[in-house]
Amino acid sequence: MTAQEKKGFSRPTDEEIKSRLSEKQYQVTQNEGTERPFDNEYWNEKRQGIYVDVVTGEPLFSSNHKYDSGTGWPSFYQPINQGVLQEDTDYKLGYARTELKSAIGHSHLGHAFEDGPLPTGVRYCINSAALRFIPKEDLEREGYADFLSMFD
Predict the structure, then answer these.
(1) 3-151, superfamily in CATH?
(2) CA-CA distance, 43 to 89, in Å (whole number)?
(3) Using an 8 Å Cβ cutoff, are 72 and 127 in contact?
(4) Looking at the DSSP assignment, which residues form a beta bridge with residue 100?
(5) Catalytic annotation, pick one of 52, 85, 103, 125
(6) Active site residue 125
(7) What is the pLDDT of residues 40-49, one digit of tens each?
């Protein structure tokens, strides 16, 4: 059992997922879809906070690691913690790409590319539809008080 699972994050049943998500969220997270660049909820989000898996609530990324990649999707140079992402190889466009999924929910998030900024050199290019943003001021109320210290 991972630390995230110990905190109560688990994958709902397929029926629960279908009933909780919008059509776009379901298409992206469960059918490996991609939303349009510059036409998604968080590509230009500037507030402090964390981004969690829309399916499980599992914390995935922090605004501290977000940057403007110019691609039109939320981009991060690292995940919030080690072990929250699973990587797989995707050949859907005819060449190898690194697909990213959430470790607990197995939600398709987006892809990783080797053109990111230091310190990692990786660009985690993520679909907004796979995420829920929790602003810093709501972290405690939403049960994510452990992450408040990231913003001191």
Answers:
(1) Peptide methionine sulfoxide reductase. (2.170.150.20)
(2) 24
(3) no
(4) 87, 110
(5) 125
(6) yes
(7) 999 999 999 9
Q: How far is CA 8 from the centre of its chain?
A: 18
Domain ranges of the chain: 3-151
- Burial pattern 64-76, b for ≥16 Cβ within 10 A else e, equals ebbeebeebbbbb
Tens-digit pLDDT profile for residues 93-133: 778 889 999 999 999 999 999 999 999 999 999 999 999 99
Token code pair at residue 72: 């039109």
Find residue 61's DSSP bridge partners.
51
Report how far residue 138's alpha carbon sits from residue 49's, in angstroms, rounded to the nearest whole number. 8
Sign of CA dihedral 134, 138, 144, 147: positive
Q: What is the mean pLDDT of the chain?
A: 93
